[in-house]
Amino acid sequence: MSKQLFTTKSITFFIAFGLLLVAGCEQIPTGREFYEIKTPPAKLRQIEQFDWEQLKATPEQPGDVNEPPTGKLQLTLQECRALAISNNLSIKAQLIAPAIAAQQVSQEEAKFEAAFSTTASYIKTDTPTETTLAGSSVDVSNVDLGVQIPLRTGGNVSFDVIDSRVKMDEAFSEFSESLNPRYNSDFAVSISQPLLKNAGNRTNTHSIRIAQYDQQISETQTKLEVIRVIAAADRAYWRFYAARKELTVRKQQYDLAQTQLEQARRFVNSGERAQVEVIRAEAGVAAQLEAIIVAENSVRDRERELKQLLNKPGLDTQSSTVLICATEPDPVHYELDGNRVVKAAIENRTEMLELELRLARDASTVDYLRNQALPLVTLNYTYNINGLGATRPDAYDLLYDKHFEDHSLGLQLLVPLGNEAAKSRLRQAFYQRRQRLATRKSRRALIEVEVLKAVDQLEANWQRILASRQNSILSGRLFRAEKRQFELGLRTSTDVLDAQTKFAQAQSAEILALTEYQIAQVDLAFATGTLLGAAKVRWEPIVPTTD
Q1: CA 72/CA 59 separation, integer angstroms
Q2: Which of 69, 322, 397, 408 has the least C-beta neighbours within 10 A?
Q3: What is the number of H-type helices and E-type strands within the chain?
Q4: Shared domain check, 313 and 165
C-alpha cells in the first residue's frame, strides 16, 4: 500500500512539474538571423561632395496625347483629419509607447509570481581511516524540489521536499544491514517576513504603482501627440488653401496685366499714347509673372507639407496627385469669456494631467524611500517534517505519519550606522517633489497667458477680416477708376499698375486674414487641450506583433 501511494505521489508531482515548465516557458518568435549593420569606415568618416551632374533631372519624355491628365483629389477638412489619425507616422510611432508601458506594468506585477526550484547533487567520498573496519567510502545523492512564493507584504514563503540517499561501506556497523543504504525524506515550510524595512503591501507594490503612473503618463503624451498632429494637419490644410487662393489671385492679376498691355499697345499703335506706355505695361506683366512663379512654388511646398502629414498610401510627397481644398472658410465671430476658457484649458490640458501624475509618482517615491531608511528587521520561521527508512517508501511513510517535526524561529536585525545614503535619497525625492509643485504653478501661469493670447489673437484676426475685406472692396474700386482714367488719357500705365498691385495686395491680405482666423481657432482649441470638429477623437494603442 505504501509503495502504491509513493508511486501515485511521484507521478502527480512530475506531472505538476511538467505543467510548471510549460507555463513558464512562453516562446517569443524570433527572426532567422540576428539584425546587424556593418558600416564601412568611409561611410562614417568621409564627407561626399554635392554632385550637380548626378542629381540633374532627366528630360521628360513626351506623353501620349490620349493619356488622361494628372489626377486630382478633392479633400475636405474632416477627411484630412481622418487621414492624419490613420496614417501619420509620428502618431503611429507614439501609439506604440502605451503598449510598451503596459508591458512594464505586467513585468512589475510578475515579481509576485511563484517560482519552482530544484537542486540535485551527487557526492562520493573516499576518506582514509585508521582501520579497514571503519569504512572509507560514502555515496550521497540529494534532490531538493521546492516552490517559492513572494508575498505582497514583503515576505517569502517556500515549500521544499528533500529526498536523499546515503550509502557507506562500513563493514561492522549495527546499522549496516538495516539502514545501509538509508533514505531521508524531509518536508519543509519556511516563512521570512520583514517587519520594518521592505515590509507592507504599499512598500512592495511601489514599483507596480510607478509603472502604472508611467503608463498613464505615456498615454497623456500620446494624447498630446494626437492633438498636435491633428492641429498641425488643420494648419497645413488652411495654409495650403491660402497658397492656392494666392496663386489664383496672382493669375488673375497676370490676366489683368496682359489686358493692360494689349490696351496700351492699341493706344500706342493708334498714336494716342507714347511708346513708354507699352514698356510700363510689359514691366507690369513681368512683375506679375514673377509673382506667379513664387506663388506656384509656395503651393508645391504647402502641398508637400500636407501630404507628409497625411501619409496616405499612393499620396506621398513625390506623387503627382494635385490636392484640391473642398472646405471653404466659414468665419463666425465668437465672443469668449477669457476666465472660462482658461478654466477649461487647466482642466483639459494633458500637460497638467501629466504633472499631476508625476506628483503622485513623487509622493509614492517619497513614501517608499522613507521606508527604505528604516532598519532591516526580519522574522524567520521554519517548520520541518523528517522521514527516515531503509527504503524510500519507508522514509515517505514516516514522513506522512509526522512523528518527527522541527520548529525554528529566528529574528535578524541590521541597522546601518549613519544611514546617510538612504537619508540623502529621501531628501532628493522630497526636493524633487517640491520642485515639481513649483513647476505646476509656473505651468498654470504659462497656460493662462497662452490661452488669453489665443483669445486675443482670435478677436484680432476677426477684425483683420473686416478691415481687409473693406480694403479689398475699395482697392478694387480704385483699380477700376484708374483704368477708366487711363482710357480717358488722364492716367499712365504706371498709375494703373500701381492700383492693380494694391488691389492684389488687398486680396492677398483678405485671404490671409481668413486663413489666419481659421488657424487662430485651431490654436485656441490646441491651447485648451481640445480639437475642432463635430466628432470626438478616440485613439487606441498599437500592440505590435512579436514575429
Answers
A1: 24
A2: 69
A3: 13, 8
A4: no
